[in-house]
């Protein structure tokens, strides 16, 4: 059962909005602005689920996913991306190859997110 979620995204408005929506659904949510901060939060809180963007400064999402999965191969991760400046959807396929269980192309509908969370529960 998923109760705690870590949201890693460098877009403040997106991250805070997603946090609020997930909290309204009853989840305990912590936000991180990049992969570096996300890894620190992951190690401190051991969340039930991680939602991570791919294109971020400091430490990007693929590298973040690889470190998390190396630490815990069973950690559920959902990768999200709009493709950055290139709008290249391949980022999400790479994320899946490196351990993300689900992928969401931004922008996505909240129902798509909730369905992915239910599938991972």
In short:
By secondary structure, the protein is α/β, with parallel strands linked by helices. Helices cover 45% and strands 20% of the residues. α2 runs parallel beside α3.
Give an account of the 3D structure.
- With about 120 residues, the protein is an alpha/beta fold.
- The protein has a single domain (about 5-120), classed as Rossmann fold, CATH 3.40.50.2300.
- It has helices at about 10-25, 35-45, 60-70, 90-95, 110-120; strands at about 5-10, 30, 50-55, 75-80, 100-105.
- Helix 3 links the parallel strand 3 and strand 4.
- Helix 2 packs parallel to helix 3 (about 60-70).
- The radius of gyration is 13 Å and the shape is globular.
- The model has no long low-confidence stretch (mean pLDDT about 95).
Features:
single chain; 121 residues; alpha/beta; Rossmann fold; 20% strand
The CATH topology label is Rossmann fold
Count of beta strands: 5
Sheet-strand content, in percent, reads 15-25%
Q: What's the rounded overall pLDDT mean?
A: 94
List strands and helices in order, with pairings.
Blueprint: E1 4-8, H1 12-24, E2 28-32, H2 35-45, E3 49-53, H3 61-71, E4 77-81, H4 90-97, E5 102-105, H5 110-120
Parallel strand pairs: 1-2, 1-3, 3-4, 4-5
Helix pairs in contact: 2-3
């Amino acid at each position: 059962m998923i109760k705690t979620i870590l949201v890693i995204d460098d877009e403040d408005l997106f991250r805070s909005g997603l946090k609020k929506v997930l909290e309204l659904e009853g989840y305990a949510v912590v936000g991180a602005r990049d992969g570096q901060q996300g890894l620190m939060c992951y190690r401190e809180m051991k969340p039930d689920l991680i939602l991570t963007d791919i294109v971020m400064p400091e430490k990007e999402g693929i590298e973040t996913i690889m470190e998390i999965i190396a630490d815990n191969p069973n950690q559920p991760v959902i990768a999200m991306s709009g493709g950055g400046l290139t709008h290249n959807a391949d980022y999400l396929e790479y994320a899946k190859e490196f351990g993300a269980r689900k992928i969401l192309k931004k922008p996505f509908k909240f129902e798509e997110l909730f369905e992915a969370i239910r599938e991972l529960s």
